[in-house]
């Protein structure tokens, strides 16, 4: 699904260059449920943003389903992201002015799906995350766990193959976080996804089949079930 070669990321800063990581090589197979662990500031979000082609590497290549995404134009990248990748973030990133249904519909409307069809698919997805009773509610009236469930439904709206989640439970108590992870795992299996979860929490990593540790600018495989 993903092949990463010699991946290197530097940030140029006024006081000099920050080398986040260097020469990372690894592969994520179709169907893998992967955790990337590491302490704060080590570069987990930076790596996930590269895997999600939201950002470009300083050096190295990323192949998504065999396709080199390093040299594509912004327009092509946006299209690939829209078609193949779903994102879940720590702070949900829902649009506050819109209902759950509208938030989930958004990526579909952008893709050109008609209004009625988008609403139907979105309400189906919201049912899959057990929010059928809250489809006409705005984020401010939802709990954190419910907002994250809307965000999971939104991430899956375009039927992506790859699901990328950055600390999806980082803002939730453990019990709620566990429910979100179980939901993501169930959807991962049911929709035959490939999923990558970034976390600093070992309990989160226990949900995953493969665990990588990011440390001092490199990545190593810690465990594989
Ligand atoms: N856009 C940017 N410009 C400059 N430096 C950045 C940028 N984004 C991140 N960094 C720096 O890169 C390093 C890695 O940041 P990153 O956000 O990837 O860490 P992280 O592992 O996700 O941390 P956390 O667990 O706190 O979210 C940090 O030192 C951070 O300050
Ligand atoms: Mg981060």
CATH H-level homologous superfamily name: P-loop containing nucleotide triphosphate hydrolases
Q: What's the CATH topology label? A: Rossmann fold
Look at the structure and give the mean pLDDT.
95
Please list the strands of the largest sheet in the order they lie side by side.
Answer: 6-7-8-3-9-10
Task: Tell me how many strands there are.
Answer: 10
Helix content: 25-40%
CATH class category label = Alpha Beta
Q: How large, in whole angstroms, is the Cα Rg? A: 17 Å
Task: Output the number of helix runs.
Answer: 7
Order of helices and strands: EEEHEEHEHHHEHEHEE
Structural class call reads alpha/beta
Distance between the termini: 18 Å
How does the SSE layout of this entry go?
Layout: E1 2-13, E2 16-28, E3 33-37, H1 44-51, E4 59-64, E5 67-68, H2 74-84, E6 85-88, H3 100-111, H4 115-128, H5 144-156, E7 162-166, H6 174-190, E8 194-199, H7 202-205, E9 210-215, E10 218-224
Parallel strand pairs: 3-8, 3-9, 6-7, 7-8
Antiparallel strand pairs: 1-2, 1-4, 4-5, 9-10
Helix pairs in contact: 3-4, 3-5, 4-5, 5-6
The structure holds adenosine-5'-triphosphate (ATP) and magnesium ion.
């Amino acid at each position: 699904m993903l092949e990463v070669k010699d991946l290197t990321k530097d940030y140029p800063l006024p006081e000099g260059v920050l080398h986040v990581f260097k020469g990372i090589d690894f592969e994520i197979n179709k169907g893998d449920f992967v955790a990337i662990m590491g302490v704060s500031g080590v570069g987990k979000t930076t790596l996930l943003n590269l895997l999600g082609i939201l950002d470009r590497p300083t050096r190295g290549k990323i192949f998504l389903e065999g396709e080199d995404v390093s040299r594509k134009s912004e327009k092509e990248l946006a299209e690939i992201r829209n078609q193949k990748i779903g994102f879940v973030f720590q702070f949900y990133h829902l649009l506050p002015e819109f209902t759950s249904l509208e938030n989930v519909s958004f990526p579909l409307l952008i893709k050109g799906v008609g209004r009625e069809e988008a609403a139907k698919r979105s309400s189906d997805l919201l049912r899959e995350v057990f929010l059928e009773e809250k489809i006409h509610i705005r984020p401010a009236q939802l709990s954190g766990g419910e907002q994250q469930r809307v965000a999971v439904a939104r991430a899956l709206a375009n039927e992506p193959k790859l699901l990328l989640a950055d600390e999806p439970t980082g803002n939730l108590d453990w019990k709620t976080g566990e429910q979100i992870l179980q939901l993501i795992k169930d959807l991962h299996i049911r929709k035959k996804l490939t999923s990558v979860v970034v976390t600093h929490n070992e309990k989160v990593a226990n949900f995953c089949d493969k665990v990588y540790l990011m440390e001092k600018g490199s990545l190593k495989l810690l465990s594989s079930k």
